[in-house]
Write a structure and sequence with these properties.
By secondary structure, the protein is mainly beta. Helices cover about 5% and strands about 40% of the residues. Strands 15, 16, 17, 18, 19, 20, 21, 22, 23, 24, 25, 26 and 27 form a 13-stranded mixed beta sheet that branches.
Length: about 575
């Protein structure tokens, strides 16, 4: 069997070299009608969605099947992100991914637990060799769940190419019913030079649109001049669900000539962060709505954008009429078209003079700079910003004010606080935190200490200050009490929490031996499965130590009995 699979990898890979999207190769990973709650490449916070979110009828525990034969090439278990995830590499070179699983199949579960006990850790990443965990098409590989960063029970399913780039699984023939056209909700115009304007405005302007009886869209007639661009808010919906999902293709046409295409077919993980350059990031921060800008700004490397003419930017001349069109499509080819009539009209106006602030700092995107004041410094590396910017920089007491979080960053900045003036035990409990927009909450930012300096890295502008966590984590038993008999229990459950800096790690033992306790961060629970068969004694001493992110720890000990 093992030799056969190895040979098959070479043969099928060669045969499929000329078939980019095999239609009958991958089967459905679920044995129910596929209903999606999230489509491929739809817009998410700081990334494009890398797969399909398949609904599981609101339940956990449905069988998840291998979409084709292959071998398990990667297993990752994390508190966050994908939770429990399997990666299967197939003979044709593609890899399928199954994420947020509740648990793995019996053989995979045994393989994983052996490594967890060996490494004494719940979270881990494994790369089995080609012969360790082979699977056939339609084998049960796990059970659907809600682990990691999932917002509800579902299966996140991906297909990746040989370069580990995620691709739309629907390209491979997955059957998802969709006869519904995408919806265009809003249209915006962007003057892109000092001389440009739209309806007399020199900054972003909202343009009224209406839906016509034929189902298409048309905007009000606008006046404009100079180089301008457009952006839209648009979503799609499949037939069997009410979710507002992403679209698959956007085409823009200016006076009958192709301008820009946005093809959500494939992307790389290296570029997914540039979603914040694609959307109007400031508008998203302020409204939580994502405008897709249908023009390519400088330092936008997204491969899903195809430039046909002037990077999607259009030039409007005085006393000339134009038609700009946006065609939005879903994967099944349902289309919605928006027409924008434009009349060129040059207007002379003077730009308002804004008062200059003493704290304004000029940042040249291509150069590194260190901003420093009152024991606080911010190191901004080359190409952290997409373009040159002017930002506020101020330090008042222990609070760093670094503009507002309305400008996207490509890289993390290094934020440094000198804490040499602090003395005593409190010094060890300090951390750098990001202040919420309304100033009523402090969010822990991963902080390292080097001598008398605290260092944090962040990709967000805004306010940062020193926080102190002088509280130990809380531990509470859920389904047992001290000195109790729990012979009929399959699981041992506790709740752990830390309200300030958060849980960093934990270690649990029974009779001095490490046990695997699975951590559900959403429910703040730890669970041990007695089927792991660590327990052999009647009287058992349980101990757990929980540590938060600044080093505070709590210890919980109890005795229970079990036959």
């Amino acid at each position: 069997m093992k030799v056969f699979i190895c040979l098959l990898f070479f043969i099928v890979s060669f045969c499929n070299a000329q078939t980019p999207y095999p239609q009958n190769y991958f089967k459905s990973p679920l044995d129910i009608t596929l209903v999606v709650s999230g489509t491929f490449a739809e817009l998410r916070s700081n990334h494009f969605h890398s797969g399909l979110d398949l609904k599981t009828k609101g339940k956990e525990g449905l069988n998840a099947y291998a979409a084709a034969e292959g071998y398990v090439s990667r297993i990752k278990i994390s508190r966050y992100g994908y939770g429990k995830a399997l990666y299967i590499t197939h003979p044709n070179g593609y890899t399928t991914v199954y994420a947020h699983l509740q648990k793995f199949s019996k053989s995979i579960e045994a393989y994983v637990k052996k490594q967890q006990y060996k490494k004494e850790t719940f979270e881990l990443e494994l790369f089995p060799n080609i012969e360790a965990l082979t699977v056939s098409a339609n084998d049960t590989i796990g059970f659907t769940g809600n682990t990691g960063g999932s917002g509800g029970p579902h299966l996140h399913f991906e297909i990746r190419d040989k370069q580990e780039r995620p691709m739309n699984p629907m390209l491979f023939g997955l059957d998802i019913k969709d006869t519904t056209k995408p919806v265009v909700y809003e249209l915006f115009g962007y003057p892109l030079s000092k001389e440009s304007h739209i309806t007399g405005e020199s900054s972003r302007v909202k343009i009224r649109i209406k839906k016509l009886p034929n189902g298409q869209y048309k905007s009000e007639q606008i006046t404009a001049f100079g180089t301008i661009g457009f952006g839209i808010i648009s979503t799609d919906r499949q037939d069997l669900a009410s979710n507002k999902n992403g679209v698959s293709f956007i085409k823009t046409i200016f006076n009958g000539t192709k301008s820009l295409d946005v093809d959500f077919k494939r992307f790389s993980f290296d570029e997914t962060k540039h979603i914040n350059r694609y959307i109007d990031y400031k508008y998203f921060v302020e409204t939580k709505k994502r405008i897709q800008k249908l023009f390519i700004e400088s330092n936008n490397p997204l491969t899903l954008l195809k430039d046909h003419s002037e990077k999607g930017v259009v030039t409007i001349k005085d006393t000339t009429n134009y038609i700009y069109k946006v065609i939005v499509s879903d994967f099944m080819g349902n289309k919605s078209e928006l027409s924008v009539p434009i009349v060129g009209l040059k207007k002379e106006f003077s730009e308002p003079t804004l008062p200059k602030k003493n704290t304004l700092q000029q940042i040249v995107a291509s150069e590194e700079i260190i901003l420093e004041k009152n024991g606080v410094s911010v190191q901004i590396y080359r190409n952290t910003f997409y373009e040159d910017v002017s930002i506020d920089f101020e330090v008042i007491n222990d609070t760093l004010k670094l503009y507002k979080p309305i400008i996207p960053l490509q890289k993390s900045m290094s934020i440094n606080f000198d804490i040499s003036q602090y003395k005593g035990p409190d010094k060890d409990q300090l951390f750098i935190g990001r202040v919420s927009d309304f100033g009523n909450k402090l969010y822990y930012t991963s902080t390292k200490k080097r001598g008398d300096t605290l260092i944090a890295r962040s990709k967000y502008l805004g306010n940062y200050t020193l926080g102190i966590d002088d509280e130990n984590p809380k531990i509470k038993a859920i389904n047992f009490k001290n000195e109790s008999w729990i012979s009929n229990h399959r699981y041992l459950k506790l709740k752990i929490s830390d309200e300030i800096s958060g849980i960093k790690n934990y270690r649990a033992t029974i009779n001095g031996q490490w046990i695997l306790m699975e951590y559900d961060t959403k429910k703040q629970t730890l669970t041990y499965d007695f089927n792991d068969k660590i327990i052999t004694a009647t009287e058992n001493n349980f101990k757990i130590i929980v540590t938060d992110n600044v080093g505070n720890s709590s210890t919980f000990e109890t005795t229970f009995y079990r036959k």
